[in-house]
Design a protein that fits this description.
mainly beta, two-stranded antiparallel ribbon, about 0% helix, about 75% strand, globular, GIN domain-containing protein, DUF2807
């Protein structure tokens, strides 16, 4: 059992868990990125995503499926969020355009996110507060 880090897959950092044993405990990874070129984040499983600083990008896409929690502060032109499963995500900062979508159980809280335009879609027992 060991983590696999691969940064040569379509310029994407891929982190996954290689399970070679039948009995194992779910691993926990704390990953700190200081990078100005992150365009998107794809999440799967049980994930807690936090920003310690403002994420300054032209565009930021976040996709996720699983048990997802997070609190992000952004300064972007376009923010696209598509979450499935059980999710609770908080967004603050500024996005000229914000497209927020959640399906399943949970919420996207964007009350502290300043936007000029956008679209919000929720399905299931989910809400988007903006």
């Amino acid at each position: 059992m060991y983590p696999i880090l691969n940064s040569n897959y379509n310029a994407t950092l891929v982190i996954y868990y290689n399970n070679e044993c039948e009995h194992y405990q779910s691993p926990q990874y704390d990953i700190y990125l200081n990078h100005t070129g992150i365009l998107g984040v794809t999440l799967a499983g049980i994930v807690d995503l936090q920003s310690e600083d403002v994420i300054r990008q032209k565009e930021l896409r976040i996709q996720g499926d699983g048990i997802l929690n997070g609190d992000l502060e952004v300064f972007v032109d376009t923010l696209s969020v598509d979450l499935k499963g059980i999710s609770t995500m908080y967004f603050s900062g500024t996005a000229n355009t914000a497209n927020l979508k959640i399906a399943g159980i949970g919420m996207i809280c964007a009350r502290s996110l300043k936007t000029k335009s956008g679209k919000s879609v929720s399905d299931g027992i989910a809400i988007i507060s903006d």
